[in-house]
């Protein structure tokens, strides 16, 4: 709201300055005829230097105000992002807890099933999910379930299980 007022003040001052320069010429006065050539030049220089400082100060104040407004806007947006991040962290934690409970429950269910029924169910799962379940089961139960699966599916699951562990070159050369 102050910006238009400051602009108006600067515009009026500039208009007055131009009017002061043009008015003597319009009425036929010349600086030589009045004998104030040196005085008016000094007065103009003083006026310009006074206006320059005020204009620069006004410009700096305006820029400072704009930067403060931008800083406040950025700070409010950062607060909103932090709130969203915290909300997503809570949601992710709840989701992970649910998945852990579901996995533990599923591992318990599969370990109590007959091996042929468990193999049929796990054959329908995706390879990574089935491999993860096999890793969580007791090795004795896992081996019986793998034995009941079709050979293609059991070999694919074995490759997924082996591929999930990164083997270093030292381990390869040792074998």
Question: Would you give an account of this structure?
Answer:
By secondary structure, the chain is mostly helical. It is 88% helix and 0% strand. Helix 5 packs across helix 7. The chain is rod-shaped. The model has no long low-confidence stretch (mean pLDDT 80).
Protein topology:
Layout: H1 2-26, H2 31-34, H3 37-112, H4 115-124, H5 127-136, H6 139-148, H7 151-163, H8 169-174
Short description:
With 175 residues, this protein is mainly α. It is built from 8 helices and no strands.
The succession of helices and strands, N to C, reads HHHHHHHH
Helix content: over 70%
What is the tally of beta strands?
A: 0
| Average pLDDT for all residues | 80
Tell the overall outline.
rod-shaped
Q: Report strand %.
A: under 5%
As a whole number of angstroms, the C-alpha radius of gyration is 42 Å
Q: Helix tally?
A: 8
Indicate the low-confidence ranges by residue numbers. Answer: none
């Amino acid at each position: 709201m102050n910006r238009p007022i400051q602009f108006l003040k600067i515009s009026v001052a500039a208009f007055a300055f131009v009017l002061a320069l043009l008015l003597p010429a319009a009425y036929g006065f010349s600086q030589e005829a009045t004998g104030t050539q040196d005085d008016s030049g000094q007065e103009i220089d003083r006026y310009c230097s006074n206006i320059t400082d005020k204009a620069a100060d006004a410009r700096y104040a305006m820029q400072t105000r704009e930067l403060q407004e931008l800083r406040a806007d950025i700070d409010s947006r950062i607060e909103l992002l932090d709130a969203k991040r915290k909300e997503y962290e809570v949601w992710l934690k709840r989701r992970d807890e649910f998945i852990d409970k579901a996995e533990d429950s599923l591992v318990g269910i599969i370990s109590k099933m007959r091996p042929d029924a468990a193999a049929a169910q796990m054959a329908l799962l995706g390879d990574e999910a089935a491999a993860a379940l096999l890793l969580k089961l007791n090795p004795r139960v896992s081996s019986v379930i793998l034995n009941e699966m079709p050979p293609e599916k059991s070999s694919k699951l074995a490759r997924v299980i082996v591929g999930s562990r990164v083997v270093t070159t030292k381990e390869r050369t040792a074998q």
